[in-house]
Structure formats: structure tokens, C-alpha cells
Design goal:
Elements (H helix, E strand, L loop, with lengths): L5 E13 L4 E12 L11 E7 L5 H6 L5 E5 L7 H4 L6 E5 L1 H15 L2 H15 L1
Parallel strand pairs: 1-4, 4-5
Antiparallel strand pairs: 1-2, 2-3
Helix pairs in contact: 3-4
């Protein structure tokens, strides 16, 4: 997967038993995926999951130390570190439209901003393509 030109990264919480405390704690499951089937790409789809005990932005930096290419990520601010840390600018971030659209939708719902409405209309036109 790390030899692919583009990789998707997402993370989610995971309840983990916390022995001795009689309860669970929150861990993090990082998912790295490659799937070029919609674009008739040559590689097979793949997904890898890596568990960590925390959400530190250094975790994906460690996981992707050898990756060179485009990394599609969500809105988590810690992902920005992936484009800043490598001295050779080997990682280029592609942020998820869904996160941007959601924030814009919520802003429009509360303000009825014409600019936000225009942005939502343009994003909708892109989705139809």
C-alpha cells in the first residue's frame, strides 16, 4: 500500500478493556486504504488497520514514514502534520469534501448566508459529475 500513489487515511475510536479499572478506555483505530477500481487503476484494493492507544498526530507520521504521494484525509487537524513534518514534502494532503461541506451546511443553516448557499450549490454540481 505504501508504494501506491494515493492512500486514504481515516481514524475512529475503539473501546478497549482497561484491566484493573473495571471499565473501558478509548483507543484509536487508523485505517489506511487503497482502491483505484472506480478509475480502472491497476492495483488491487487493500486496507490496513493499526491500533494505537491515543490520537496523537505523530502516529500516522510514523505509520507513513516511507509513503510518497497523495494522502486523502478528513478534517482532523493532526493530519496537517503529515504534510509539514517530511523535509522532502513527500506527502501531499487531499482533504475530504464531506467535512468542508458539513461545516458549510451548518453555517448556512444558522446564518442563511448567500455565499454559503452558492458554495453548497457548486459542491452539489461537482457531486453530480
Amino acid at each position: 500500500m505504501l508504494s501506491s500513489a494515493k492512500v486514504l487515511l481515516d481514524a475512529t475510536t475503539l473501546p478497549v478493556l482497561d484491566p484493573g479499572r473495571g471499565q473501558t478506555k478509548t483507543g484509536r483505530l487508523w485505517c489506511y486504504a487503497v482502491d483505484d477500481r472506480p478509475w480502472r487503476g491497476p492495483s488491487h484494493p487493500a486496507a490496513a488497520y493499526i491500533y494505537t492507544e491515543d490520537r496523537k498526530g505523530t502516529r500516522p507520521v510514523e505509520h507513513l514514514a516511507r509513503f510518497v504521494g497523495v494522502l486523502q484525509v478528513g478534517g482532523y487537524a493532526g493530519f496537517k502534520r503529515l504534510a509539514v513534518d517530511p523535509a522532502d514534502a513527500s506527502v501531499r494532503l487531499a482533504f475530504c469534501w464531506v467535512h468542508m461541506r458539513r461545516d458549510c451546511f451548518q453555517f448556512h443553516a444558522s446564518t442563511q448566508s448567500p455565499l454559503a448557499a452558492e458554495l453548497l450549490a457548486r459542491v452539489a454540481a461537482l457531486y453530480t459529475i
